[in-house]
C-alpha cells in the first residue's frame, strides 16, 4: 500500500538493471560500502578546500609576494616594461630621508660591479628576447643576473607604477594572473567535489537501497550514481594536482633563488617523488582489488563444487539405504499380504 492507502503496482525490473546486477562492477556491493566511499571523497574535499581557500588569498595580485613575482616576470617578458623601469628610477625619488635617485651601478662581488641599466636595455633582450613560452620564461627568471638585478630593484621600485603599467598596456605576463587562474580552477573543482559528495549522500540515503533485500535497488542506483562518483573523484584528483602546482608557484614567488626552488619543488618533489609514489599506490590499489575479486570468485566456485559433490554423495549413500529398507520390509509385507488372504478366506 502507498502512503495514502493506494495499492502500488508491481513494476518490472529493467533489463539493464538485471544485466548490471550480474556484472562484476555494479553487482555484489552493499549500501554501507558505497556510502563509505562517497563519504571519504567528501571528507577529503572539505579538508582540501580549507587549504585551497587560504592559498587563494596568498596568490592574490595585491600581496607583496605576488608583486615581487610580477615585477620579475614582466622584466623578462617586456622590453617596454624594462625601459619603463629605468625611466621611473631616473625620475622618482626613492630616498627615505633626502632626495635620492636609484644608482644603477651595484657591487655584486668584491671589486665586481654590475651596470643594471645596460643589462636591462640590451642584455636581457639579447639572451631571451621577449621570453615567449614557459620554458624560456622560467629560464629567464632563473637567470642569476636577472635575479641579481631584481634583488636590487624590487625593494626600491614603487609598485603603484607596476600596477599602472599593467592597467594601461595590458598583461604581457603576470605571475599572479596565472597563479590566480590555476588556484581558482583548483578551488572550483574541489568545491564541486564537496557539493557532489553531499548530493550523492542525500541521494543514497533517500533511495530504497537498504530496504530492498534483493539488492536490485542498489544496482539501479549505482548505474547512475557509480559513474557520478567516479567523475567526482576525478574532480578531486585534478583539483589536488592544480593545488600542488599553485603551491609550487607560490613558493617560486616567495623565493629569490628561482632555479633552486624550481629544482626542489618541481624536479624533486613532483617528478621524482610525488608522481612515482602516486602511480605505485594506484597500481597497488587496483592490483589488490583485482586479486581480492579473483580469489573471492575462486572460493565461491570451490564452495559450490563442494556442496554439489556432497549432495551427490549424499544421494548415492541414500540409494543403498533405501534398497536395504525395502528388502527388510519385504518379509513383513508378505506376511501382511498372507494374513489378509487368510482373513478373506475365513469370511468366505
UniProtKB/TrEMBL annotation:
Key words, A-Z: Membrane, Transmembrane, Transmembrane helix
TM region(s), chain numbering: 182-206, 218-245, 266-291
Protein name in UniProt: Uncharacterized protein
Domain of life: Eukaryota
Organism: Cladocopium goreaui
Amino acid at each position: 500500500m502507498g502512503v495514502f492507502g493506494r495499492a502500488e503496482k508491481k513494476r518490472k525490473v529493467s533489463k539493464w538493471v538485471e544485466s548490471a546486477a550480474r556484472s562484476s562492477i555494479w553487482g555484489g556491493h552493499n549500501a554501507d560500502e558505497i556510502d563509505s566511499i562517497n563519504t571519504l571523497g567528501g571528507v577529503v574535499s572539505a579538508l582540501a578546500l580549507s587549504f585551497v581557500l587560504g592559498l587563494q588569498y596568498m596568490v592574490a595580485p595585491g600581496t607583496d609576494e605576488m608583486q615581487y613575482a610580477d615585477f620579475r616576470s614582466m622584466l623578462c617578458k617586456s622590453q617596454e616594461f624594462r625601459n619603463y623601469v629605468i625611466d621611473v628610477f631616473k625620475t622618482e625619488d626613492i630616498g627615505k630621508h633626502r632626495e635620492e635617485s636609484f644608482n644603477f651601478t651595484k657591487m655584486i662581488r668584491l671589486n665586481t660591479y654590475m651596470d643594471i641599466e645596460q643589462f636591462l636595455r640590451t642584455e636581457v633582450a639579447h639572451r631571451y628576447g621577449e621570453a615567449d613560452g614557459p620554458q624560456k620564461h622560467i629560464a629567464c627568471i632563473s637567470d642569476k643576473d636577472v635575479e641579481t638585478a631584481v634583488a636590487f630593484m624590487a625593494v626600491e621600485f614603487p609598485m603603484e607604477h607596476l600596477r599602472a603599467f599593467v592597467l594601461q598596456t595590458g598583461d604581457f605576463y603576470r605571475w599572479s594572473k596565472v597563479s590566480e587562474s590555476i588556484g581558482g580552477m583548483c578551488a572550483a573543482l574541489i568545491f564541486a567535489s564537496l557539493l557532489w559528495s553531499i548530493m550523492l549522500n542525500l541521494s543514497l540515503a533517500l533511495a530504497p537501497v537498504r530496504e530492498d533485500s534483493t539488492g536490485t535497488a542498489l544496482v539501479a542506483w549505482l548505474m547512475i550514481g557509480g559513474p557520478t562518483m567516479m567523475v567526482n573523484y576525478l574532480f578531486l584528483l585534478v583539483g589536488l594536482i592544480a593545488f600542488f602546482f599553485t603551491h609550487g608557484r607560490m613558493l617560486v614567488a616567495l623565493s629569490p633563488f628561482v632555479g633552486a626552488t624550481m629544482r626542489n619543488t618541481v624536479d624533486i618533489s613532483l617528478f621524482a617523488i610525488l608522481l612515482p609514489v602516486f602511480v605505485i599506490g594506484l597500481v597497488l590499489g587496483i592490483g589488490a582489488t583485482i586479486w581480492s575479486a579473483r580469489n573471492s570468485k575462486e572460493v565461491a566456485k570451490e564452495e559450490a563444487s563442494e556442496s554439489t559433490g556432497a549432495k551427490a554423495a549424499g544421494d548415492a549413500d541414500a540409494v543403498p539405504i533405501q534398497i536395504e529398507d525395502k528388502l527388510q520390509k519385504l518379509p513383513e509385507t508378505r506376511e501382511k499380504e498372507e494374513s489378509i488372504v487368510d482373513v478373506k478366506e475365513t469370511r468366505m
